[in-house]
Write a structure and sequence with these properties.
It is a single chain. It contains six helices and no strands. The protein has a single domain, classed as Arp2/3 complex 21 kDa subunit ARPC3 (Orthogonal Bundle). The model has no long low-confidence stretch (mean pLDDT about 90). The radius of gyration is 16 Å and the shape is globular. The protein is mainly alpha-helical and about 170 residues long.
Length: about 170
């Protein structure tokens, strides 16, 4: 059982990391720093398939891999703070899944929390609260991107969960 979980975690991590790299190559010129968030589909899938601790390990490992491969400490801090806050939002919204929220709602909340975490870290890095002026635009854009990602998750994650139930 443990080996299969480690293998699944490695698979989710690999998918998340590769998608993150591909997303970084897609410029979104209107809002600097915004990504579509498709890499988080693997994190959310791992969250529902394997549990919150495994998903947290994917968030942390993905950001550490990016730091080791690209060596940008600022990006690491922004990514880690956003990822941790997004993961926390998943923990809190899990209780609302199927009762009040679909993956679209959960993903939108998670995306906004990711942006809040990044802006908080950015304000610490540059030692200036002026970066918070960027927060409303970033939250609006990330909410829309999160909704779109959630629509993709609505189609993918139930299938992943069904596969796991069949293999058990």
């Amino acid at each position: 059982m443990k080996t299969s979980k480690i293998t699944a975690c490695a698979l989710f991590l690999s998918v998340s990391f590769v998608i993150s790299l591909l997303e970084g190559a897609i410029p979104l010129p209107l809002i600097p720093g915004l990504k579509l968030g498709f890499a988080n589909i693997a994190v959310v899938a791992a969250f529902f398939y394997m549990g919150k601790n495994w998903a947290l390990s994917i968030v942390i490992t993905r950001t550490l891999l990016a730091l080791l491969l690209f060596g940008n400490m600022t990006s690491f801090l922004l990514s880690l703070s956003g990822g941790l806050l997004a993961w926390l939002s998943l923990c809190f919204t899990l209780r609302l899944y199927t009762k009040a929220l679909s993956f679209c709602g959960i993903s939108s909340i998670s995306a906004v929390c990711h942006s809040i975490g990044q802006i908080f870290a950015a304000s610490l890095v540059v030692a200036d609260y002026a970066v918070y002026a960027y927060l409303p635009l970033l939250c609006a854009a990330s909410s829309a991107a999160g909704f779109f990602t959630g629509c993709v998750m609505n189609a993918i994650i139930p299938r992943i969960i069904n596969l796991s139930e069949r293999s058990s």
